[in-house]
Amino acid sequence: NFFKDFNESALDRFAQLINSSFNFNDCDIVHFNSLLFYKVACGTKRVFALHENPHEFKQNCGKNSFSKMQKIIHHSNKNNTWFIAPSRFYSNVFKEKFDVAVTTIPHSINLEILKSSDTDKSKLIKDFGLDDNRFTILFPSRLELQQKRPQLALLALKKIEKYLPRTQVVLTGIDEQYRSNISYLKKNYERK
User: What is the pTM of this model?
Assistant: First the structure.
């Protein structure tokens, strides 16, 4: 495991493995989804999509990993490297942390696919077994407990449920890999 103890040496070894496995010389530009690839393909134009916020990076790579990553980026040649983030908020966070330009490319939701022009609201409520007399709160996200953390939203709702007694919650993103999370969430957060 390269990143059990995150440090620059581990990043170098990982980059060496990746660089020896791929020929990046033929690439016009390389897109990476993790800063763990920061020392990979340094001679090629690179774009880093910053999907992990600093807290998640520390959670995944260790307590001091993000500050170590900051130092590595600060002391590197960034001439052929660009950074993008999914929100203005995180663009500003990473601009401040790395002292680099960060372009915001927001996640988009195609509202057209959410419109049910040929299906009315009452049919959807019936089809999904919802109560038409309750206020429905929808969480459009994958049901992933570490990064998306739907349990925080459910905990917050539990704390204010006396103010919102006639609500129902719909969680989305229940792919096969997240099915086991349903029982955990029901056990710990379902209304009694």
Answer: 0.61
